[in-house]
Amino acid sequence: MLRAAGVGVGDEVIVPAFGNAEVAGAVSLAGALPMFADVDPVTYCLDPAAVEAAVTPRTAAVVVVHRFGRPADVPRLHLVGQRHGLLVLEQAESEAPYDEIARRRERAAYLDARLRGVRTPDGGDGHSYQQYVVRVPGNGRPDRDAFARALRGRGVDCRVPVKTPLHRLPEYRRCVSLPETELAADETLALPVDASLTKRDMQRIVAACNALGGLLQPAF
User: What average pLDDT score do residues 167-190 get?
Assistant: First the structure.
């Protein structure tokens, strides 16, 4: 799509650093330079204000990535594109059947109502919960990683959704300030919310998290 729009050598394309390298790699394959903007701390998608601040005379496009089942603020991002004459492309997540999404939402609501000691995701704007991503309070990555190890020791299959932001990888390293991206990479943890989980599975997840969550206090 970038090539078809004439984006190539000499152009810059704004993409999120919070995620996998697939989008940045596609920009590089088109001959353009991926540039990173910060994410919204609630949706984990590109923040329209951060995108606008990252626009330069060489910017040709923005690639919007929807994250964890929560859609980006596409209307505001398109307004940014219109103001600066930029192509705005979306990378949608794979869509699950409606009944599966409904079951995920039920399990997410169960966790929302019972989890203590972690910050649960905001379920607004049609969240389909491809992943149920919480924030672990404390001192960032060390506490989040310790929390994850303890959960796995209690039989909960959790994972860190983004281990290293792209602007910290050698092939995409940039001297750019992305505070929300950095914080999200240090604090986020994806808990199971699959449609196949039973009530007993959900109870085990809650019990394991709550047994640990009270031990972690926010850093001051």
Answer: 94
**Closest by CA position to 164, among listed 39, 4, 21:** 21
Both structure tokens of 203 = 């109870």
Q: Which long-range contacts (CB under 8 A, 24 or more apart) does 215-218 make?
A: 215/117, 216/117, 216/136, 216/137, 216/138, 216/143, 216/147, 217/137, 217/138, 218/137, 218/138
Q: Is the per-residue pLDDT at 49 higher than 50?
A: yes
Strand-pairing partners, residue 34, are 13
Task: Tell me how far CA of residue 138 lies from CA of 130, 148, 161, in angstroms.
Answer: 25, 13, 18
d(CA 182, CA 176): 11
The pTM assigned to this predicted structure is 0.92
Asked if residue 180 has pLDDT above 90, the reply is yes
